[in-house]
Amino acid sequence: MLFRNRFLLLLALAALLAFVSLSLQFFHLIPVSAAKNGASSKSRKRIMPDPVTEPPVMDPVYEALLYCNIPSVAERSMEGHAPHHFKLVSVHVFIRHGDRYPLYAIPKTKRPEIDCTLVANRKPYHPNLEAFVSHMSKGSGASFESPLNSLPLYPNHPLCEMGELTQTGVVQHLQNGQLLRDIYLKKHKLLPNDWSTDHLYLESTGKSRTLQSGLALLYGFLSDFDWKKIYFRHQPSALFCSGNCFCPVRNQYLEKEQRRQYLLRLKNSQLERTYGEMAKVVDVPTKQLRAANPIDSMLCYFCHNVSFPCTRNGCIDMEHFKVIKTHQIEDERERREKKLYLGYALLGAHPILNETIGRMQRAAEGRKEEIFALYSAHDVTLSPVLSALGLTEARFPRFAARLIFELWQDREKPSEHSVRILYNGVDVTFHTSFCQEHHKHSHKPMCPFENLVRFVRRDMFTVLGSSSTNYYDACHREGF
């Protein structure tokens, strides 16, 4: 009898455990076994996983996902956060253009078929996309400095042209603009209701992808704006150096940095092997494939969930992509350590930083002109600025990256102004080289504006290790 009771008890316990196990699998609380070779039992077109949490070690696929910056849920950000007794005075926004079609093609392969027309019911979706297209179609008489006045105001080709902004890129900046609108206009009332052309400063390089990205952000920020109030200036240099672009020493730093990149690539035998394998797939010399910068095109395939190209000799695959992307990440790490790029960045970023603090100084004096500035630019614009500011841990500028300078006035001490710097919504003010020490010795929540002014007007040249005290001397010093 006792044995029978024990047997029934064990049987009931086994049944309970089986039920619990099945329930956990049903609710996806424990994993079920994968198909052979790790593949799903159902064929999938997707070539990338969804990001959840940052991996404990460098993961090239995760880094590439961050770079793609695919629009999804509303973003949380730290823009506009300050104690109640601070008043927002001016905002200066640097953006990289949004997602684009490649600038290079992989030799002897078919171009990825991506549609660059804007379709309201196609992913990625934005509720203002259709209204954006409608508003852009009315802007032919707006004021754009030449040659911007000859560029299309939104992408519109069924098969994207090289370097053309995609629908993803437009949506990325519509989201950026809407986020900044909610913070700076609705919450902080940065611009008056009757704002005019004088309140804005808008500048773009002469590429359609930068102008269109700037317009998408501007539409998200100032929806249905009056075209008569909009004036976009043209910036001929990707460094936004205006009339101060001639800098021989900066170019020497760049040449040394490019030499460093070349030597690092030569040391990477796995990278060379990968280029060789890919060259065999497309039947071209390895040197020709490398010159075609295949990672630019591969990132487009990756970001748009399109399978990498194949030929009769085989396929370019995810392992090739991982090797090249891993090398990119290692190159960024060595770049920070060797400091050659820092010299280039300090001299490359000085003109635009100097112009920005001049605009901020005028706002601090009470002038209302150009209190919102937008620079629509490239990765090669933002990257030197990030490096010059000392933001060594900042990731390489993703598609639609934004770097923002906020100027604040202390209402309790109106003569005192502070600055905040934010990168993709993260407050990085106290990671900058000019405000790290202040953060250690002060309880104030923001950085004194004079710290930034002193850094740009004097300390940037000290970092270069020269006796120069101004930009011209630093650019032309002999014996470098």
TrEMBL record:
What the entry lists under Pfam families is as follows: His_Phos_2
Which membrane topology describes this protein? Single-pass type II membrane protein
Its main subcellular localisation, reduced to a broad class, is Golgi
Q: Which InterPro entries match?
A: His_Pase_clade-2 (IPR000560), His_PPase_superfam (IPR029033), Histidine_acid_phosphatase (IPR050645)
One Gene Ontology biological process: glycosaminoglycan biosynthetic process
Superkingdom of this entry's organism?
A: Eukaryota
This protein's UniProt keywords: Glycoprotein, Golgi apparatus, Hydrolase, Membrane, Signal-anchor, Transmembrane, Transmembrane helix
Q: What is this protein called?
A: 2-phosphoxylose phosphatase 1
Q: Which organism is it from?
A: Orycteropus afer afer
Q: What is the lineage of its organism?
A: Eukaryota, Metazoa, Chordata, Craniata, Vertebrata
Q: Which gene encodes it?
A: PXYLP1
